[in-house]
Amino acid sequence: MSAPPRVLVIHGPNLNLLGQREPGIYGSQTLAELDASLHALAAELAAEVTIRQSNHEGEIIGWIHGAVGTCDGIVLNPGGYTHTSVAIHDALRAVTVPAVEVHLSNLYRRESLRHTSVTGVACVGVVMGLGAASYHLALRHLVDEHRRRSA
Ligand code: CA2
Q1: 70 in Cβ contact with 6 (< 8 Å)
Q2: I need a surface site. Which of 88, 104, 134, 140 has the fewest CB within 10 A?
Q3: Coil, strand or helix: which one is 10?
Q4: Is 43 exposed, middle or buried (0-12, 13-18, 19+ CB in 10 A)?
């Protein structure tokens, strides 16, 4: 029996406010509820998930670096850093761990300042606009891919 795939989920800035404001854009689910759904899915998939949230770019970069040798995949919602952070882009490029960028909202249906992701190009894929399902699909993909590569 092989070791369970290990996936790190990183929520970026302001996502701690989920469910408290802007439900029309981000839904009414709180971050704790979203995290519970990710833990439930990980149990179903026989995977291990570690979930972190930060409002600080450097902390997010440190977690990406720390994923080398400790995680098999990263699900990353960079929040507002999606549109600005060359430093997170560089961190994703610097590590060998595959990352999937996720967004609750569909960036293309929003203001033009959100239409560009500088971090997504450093990821193996991007899932957006599906609410919590964006995270769920990314988690499933990373677990499936890791098992395929390890078989
Ligand atoms: O759609 C997404 O998941 C975003 O990554 C969310 C970010 C936003 O800057 C990106 O453009 C798209 C913002 C998360 C802020 O979350 C809030 C939740 C409730 C109230 C206020 C902000």
Answers
A1: yes
A2: 140
A3: strand
A4: exposed
The atom number, within ligand 1, closest to the CA of 19 reads: 19
As a whole number of angstroms, the distance between CA 134 and CA 101 comes to: 9
Residue 138 structure tokens: 């990314």
Element (H, E) at 102: strand 99-103
Whole-number CA gyration radius for the chain: 15
Index of the ligand 1 atom closest to the CA of residue 83: 11
Distance of CA 130 to the CA centre of its chain: 13
How are beta strands 73-77 and 48-53 bridged, if at all? unpaired
Structure tokens at 38: 């990710």
pLDDT tens per residue, the chain (151 residues)?
Answer: 689 999 999 999 999 999 988 888 998 999 999 999 999 999 999 999 999 999 999 999 999 999 999 999 999 999 999 999 999 999 999 999 999 999 999 999 999 999 999 999 999 999 999 999 999 999 999 999 999 999 9
Q: 9, 60, 103, 126: which to mutate for ligand 1, most atoms within 8 A of CB?
A: 103
